[in-house]
Amino acid sequence: IEHILMETLRIWPTAPAFAVSPLADTTFGGKYAVSPDDIIMILTPMLHRDVSVWGEDVEAFRPERFAPEHAEQLPPNAWKPFGNGARACIGRPFAMQEAHLVLIMLLQRFDFSFADPDYELDVAETLTLKPTGFR
Length: 135
Description:
Blueprint: H1 2-11, E1 17-20, E2 26-28, E3 32-34, E4 40-43, H2 44-47, H3 51-54, H4 68-71, H5 92-109, E5 123-125, E6 129-131
Antiparallel strand pairs: 1-4, 2-3, 5-6
């Protein structure tokens, strides 16, 4: 269940971005100078879709990415669906615990099937990411 939830949050993190600043003057890619006064926005969906980290099948839903033998190979900070550092989501442990309980209860009590196999997800990018029209 943990791997399923982590892969779900990798593909569709609830927070679309978070901000970071370097601790000292530095240059990225040999040409982008940034200072501690600069704010860099990290777009979480892009971070979680880096082919060099997650592989060519980055859009595929593969919970086994988070199995211990694979997770150990991930670079630090490759998975940040709850933000980063002191401003990361304070509710992360509670959210994950609740998600575990809800998913387990749903799987125990219901049988699932696709109502429309041709359905294509359309995502609204607001304060959080969610399906368009979701209420």
